[in-house]
Design a protein that fits this description.
- The chain has about 70 residues and is an alpha+beta fold.
- The protein has one domain (about 5-70).
- Helix content is about 30%, strand content about 25%.
- The protein contains three helices and three strands; from the N terminus they run αβααββ.
- Strands 1-3-2 form a three-stranded antiparallel β-sheet.
Length: about 70
């Protein structure tokens, strides 16, 4: 089980085309704080039909987008 599986499942369940989550929301949704290891785990989100489009360090947020299967 992935450290961020709970977060990935909530993102997928949202059904939204795009989400912007604060670092605090990531901790709330996923049950674990965002840390450097997130960079290694973020590729798992593709299995749920989404990708991490951008990490905004100054805004302390991440942009998540639904993956267009035809593009991948």
């Amino acid at each position: 089980m992935s450290k961020y599986q709970q977060l990935w499942e909530k993102i997928a369940a949202s059904g939204q085309d795009q989400l912007t989550l604060s670092f605090d929301q990531v901790k709330e949704w996923g049950g674990v704080p965002l840390d450097h290891s997130f960079l290694n785990y973020k590729k798992e989100l593709l299995d749920y039909g989404y990708e991490v489009a951008h990490i905004y360090l100054k805004k302390r947020s991440i942009l998540i987008k639904k993956v267009n299967v035809a593009d991948k």
